[in-house]
Amino acid sequence: MTATRPALDPELRELLVDMPLMSRLSAEVLTQLRRMPSTPVDSLLTHRQVDRREITVSAEDGAPIPLSVLSPADSKRTAAAPCVYWIHGGGMVMGDRFSQIDIPLEWLDEFGAVVVSVDYRLAPEATGTTLVDDCYQGLLWVAEHAAELGVDPARIVVAGASAGGGLAAGVTLLARDLGTPAIAAQMLICPMLDHRNATLSSRQYSGVPGVWTGEMNEFGWRAVLGDLTGAQVPAYVSPALADDLSGLPTTYIDTGSAEVFRDEDTDYATRIWAAGGQAELHVWAGGCHGFDALYPQARISATARRTRTDWLARVLPGT
Questions:
Q1: pTM over 0.70
Q2: How far apart are CA 110 and CA 126, in angstroms?
């Protein structure tokens, strides 16, 4: 363990005092966490004028993939809207399509964006490329039904947080390599990108309780990789392995200085630049993993969330 590590933002440190933190995950703990209630999405929608549709699409193996489609309820809207395709976090092993949904709902409010959130299958029940393939199939459905959804197919953003950020990166690589669908931008929020779990920041946040530790990260990756090892691990699952990061849409990456994913996220942005691509990188000083989702009321969180919205306004024409 590396004992020296960046300090937490003082406001976050005070807020985390009341949060039960742990250093490791186990199958028993995961079972307990999965029994916790899902995000109460209805309470997030009550003060918004939103049309909600529940859709089920088929995975490549025929399994059902639920999608929630949340659209501004504006009968007078004539122009096609941007779309945020949202992929939730949860370490690849927990969460559902309503996890962290308050983040993309801000873009529904700000831009009139249609938000589509996908319920991909979770590890360890699903392994290998199943998770990213589920997300890709959902994205294909959105692109194919853009007119029906009132979505501008030239303004589809793939976005996700933590594990969802890693899956968003994998989906974007897959879409690039297969040539479809078109993705206008990818937003990777504290993304989980590298199964090797070997960076300095991984070591700094191992051996101590936290929101997401090196040990918890190792558990999540073991669950999703199953029997895959070494060269068998696809870059679509662990995007940091991708040899070629050229040809990607404009990218936003943010992370905290006080979290496991800091170094792999910074490296991913650096490699996009090296390949001639465009990426905007923010490392929030004192930010722990998922700080803005956990404590949106904190000043650092409000700044991070506002900065993402400002970036979307710049990269999406017509917003």
A1: yes
A2: 35
